[in-house]
Amino acid sequence: MSVLISVIAAYLLGSISFGILMSKAFGLPDPRTVGSGNPGATNVLRSGKKLAAFLTLFGDAFKGYLAVWLAIHYGLGDQVICLVALAVFIGHLYPVYYGFQGGKGVATALGVLLAISPWLGLAVLLTWVLAFAIWRYSSLAAILAAALSPLFAWNLLGDKVYVAMTAVLAVLLIWRHRSNIRKLLDGTEGGFSKPKS
After folding, report:
1. What tens digit of pLDDT does each residue of 95-126 get?
2. d(Cα 55, Cα 1) in Å, to the nearest integer?
3. Which of 32, 77, 158, 181 lies in the 20 to 30 Å Cα band around 187?
């Protein structure tokens, strides 16, 4: 019963969309109705409100971190911790509060991985930063970081349970980016221009 309660609580926590909450707080349009239609930090940033985007990023990452940290803190065991990690992530992707129409999970996944292992989270974050610095596409950076995350987990943790969880998380994240993948392939994906020197 405690396992079920932990998983459900993690899902409900993950279902909180900070992109929608911050947009309301800052008087911005609902992020699901503008830009890419994704209630994530990148789309909120397109509104021009950097603080709203930062708070969205922080909130979405923190809920992933908090759910996993609590599971670890209360000694729920590796398998339950991984179930909680997936539940909070799936809650972000398919939130019950918003008709199961959620974000793509980049920040929440980062929070989950940082809670499991700071080194794992930092390795994934560094991959994202480097990929974004080179190509200036947030979506491409996220896809590459996700694709490499199981390899990082294997090398840093060496635990099959956590590697499997990371792989499932990566597959779900990449799946949520399938429209971005199509746009990247046909050259219509929106990116960020490189800053002028």
Report:
1. 999 999 999 999 999 999 999 999 999 999 99
2. 34
3. 32
Q: Exposed/middle/buried for 167, CB within 10 Å: 0-12, 13-18, 19+? A: middle
Helix, strand, coil percentages (3-state) for the chain, rounded to 5, are 75, 0, 25
Q: Name the residue ranges covered by the structural domains of the chain.
A: 2-186
Spatial separation of the C-alpha atoms in residues 177 and 169, rounded to whole Å = 13
Distance (Å, whole) CA 188 – CA 180: 9
Neighbours of 125 (CB within 10 A): 15
Task: Collect all residues with Cβ–Cβ distance below 8 Å to 167 and sequence separation of at least 6.
Answer: 149, 150, 153
Token digits for 66? 């908090």
